Amino acid sequence: MQTRTLSGHFLRLSTWPLEERPTLILLHGAGNTGALWDAQVDGLADVANIVAVDLLGHGRSEGPLPTSIDEHASHIAKLHTALGIPKAIVCGLSLGGGVALQMLLDHADLIEGAVLLGTGARLRVMPMILQMIEQNFETFVQGMPMGAASPSTDVELLRPLMCAMLGNGSEVVLSDFRSCDTFDVRHRLGEIDCPVLVVSGEDDQLTPPKYSKYLADHIQGAQLVSVPHAGHLAPIERPEAVNHAIREWLVSLRLQVGATV
After folding, report:
1. Which domain holds residue 37?
2. Are 232 and 118 in contact (CB under 8 A)?
3. What's the Cα-to-Cα distance from 129 to each of 80, 133, 197, rounded to whole Å?
4. For 197-218, what is each residue's pLDDT tens digit?
5. Cβ neighbours of residue 198 closer than 8 Å, sequence gap 6 or more
6. C or N terminus of the chain, fewer CB within 10 Å?
7. What is the CATH number of the domain that holds 195?
8. Domain count within the chain
């Protein structure tokens, strides 16, 4: 794994400079960092360039912090230009999935496909979650595994994410959840005209499988994969299953170059 900062974004990359083959830009969820995708940066390096992003204002990326999903998408479009690639595949979890959807809608000329994990066309947040982040942030983070992970997931796997969330701080996490709360592109899904893979954790309580089914039903040609024994954080909870789903999807599209699969 290599690291680099481009267009203000701290990146974890499978290789640099990028090779002449498909590029996956991985976008993390609310309050997280690109470290969410470490198992994908390493595990999918043979089929594509992998670029895991710390969104602006998160982790080791520079500010200022965007306050909406469409603002994040605009910054990712600038990052795309800085990467010097013709088109990319955007892959996002939760808030990052919202950013990926916004890229598909507002920056379609840059995108050749998308992977949407644990996300939805609408991402309303319960008021009690916003209140807890504001008033008792540490308790919120400590309780994250209960709400975000499958009951079968080892909580220790989530410790790095909890530390990242604490490091980002309550203002960043609250802003992210507010950005999710105002996000709604249900009326625009019919505009999407490129290959899409939708991945759902079977035990996801934050964005239940019905969210993923809605996306698959309303995006023409979208494929839907369910990951058993995974909650909202499938890339960490069940990395092998997530990598297999993405790999098989890439193979089916014949997007990989010279990879042995």
Report:
1. 2-253
2. yes
3. 33, 6, 29
4. 999 999 999 999 999 999 999 9
5. 115, 116, 117, 212, 215, 216, 219, 222, 223, 224, 225
6. C
7. 3.40.50.1820
8. 1
